[in-house]
Amino acid sequence: MAFEGLTTRLQNVFGKLKGRGKVSEDDVNEAMREVRLALLEADVNFKVVKDFIAKVKERATGQEVQKSFTPAMVIIDIVNKELTELMGGTQEKLAKANKPPTVILMAGLQGAGKTTLTGKLAKLLQSQNHKPLLVAGDIYRPAAIKQLEVLGEQIGAQVFTLGDKVSPVEIAKQGVQLAKDQGNDYVLIDTAGRLQIDEELMQEIKDIHAAVKPDEVLLVVDAMTGQEAVNVAKSFHEQLALTGVVLTKLDGDTRGGAALSVKAVTGCPIKFASTGERIDQLEAFHPDRMASRILG
Ligand code: GDP
Alpha-carbon distance 221 to 248, whole Å? Predict the structure, then answer.
């Protein structure tokens, strides 16, 4: 399960603190040294860790802690709140166009989980009585169109495709037009990924962006890739003005670095978490719940 190592280590640190009646400044410093190492080992960005520890330390050496009969609990509470802040504070909702349809563009590397997310998000929207249209814009990965069609069939959502001979920009444009004509209130555009970021990939998705002016640009990143996920998010954000990040594969044994760093590094909120291959395994990302889960 995700975050296991981090959770165990943090529980050890706080277990030691709880064993003490009073907590001295030295105790706090020692605990923060250990929290720092635990976060670095969980692959959290170096600078993010530094800022985080500084904030917690500042609050944990204050009056509130010294006066408390349960200082360890006060420190855990501070860490919990700062972890929540680090991951964005509050849950960020999906954007909504003033005038439908709301256009959502999926971005990300190959294998991150874009096509799967397109199906999952469509199902989630259907459950809220929306009528999404799925657009098959990944014309390069041989099985991507078929994969989206299968997902669409599974949930009873329409999939728009023009095969793999028409440019993705044209497919996206026609898809949005079809949604307008038919009265779909959401359009989810799946796009091509590459194994790594390259000029061609960026240019293509920028062209799609310019053509359909999406209300939401979701970057899908594989949480298992840790710092690499954060680097990918940074590059995409610089070029594409992302509006949200979706972390996938949180059901795997990710150490947690991506979840804990991506908002701080890019400024872009994490909107959803994908926790499995099944179509219903998608959750709105709640920073407070994730912080509690990490603390165990
Ligand atoms: P794309 O290339 O970005 O479109 O990626 P896909 O949607 O095809 O996903 C790549 C692989 O990751 C597939 O085998 C998916 O079933 C799997 N996958 C996607 N999301 C998750 C997730 O949250 N957890 C797990 N365990 N697997 C996932």
Answer: 6
State yes or no: 198 annotated in a binding site.
Answer: no
Separation CA 152–CA 159 (nearest Å): 6
Do residues 247 and 255 touch, judged by C-beta distance below 8 A? no
Task: Identify whether the C-beta of residue 259 lies closer than 8 Å to the C-beta of residue 87.
Answer: yes
Angle between helices 4-18 and 287-295 (to 10 degrees): 70
- Nearest residue by C-alpha to atom 27 in ligand 1: 277
Cis peptide before 100 (omega within 30 of 0): no
Q: How far is CA 120 from the centre of its chain?
A: 14
The pTM of the full predicted model, rounded to 2 decimals, is 0.95
Name residues contacting ligand 1 (CB within 6 A).
108, 110-116, 193, 220, 248-249, 251-252, 274-277
Q: How far apart are CA 12 and CA 18, in angstroms?
A: 10
CA distance 25 to 65: 10
* ipTM of the complex in this document: 0.99
Mean pLDDT of 242-253: 95
Compute the distance between CA of residue 115 and CA of residue 218 in angstroms, rounded to an integer.
12
Q: How many residues does the chain have?
A: 296
Angle (CA) 282 177 111, round 5°: 35
Q: Is the pLDDT of residue 266 over 70?
A: yes
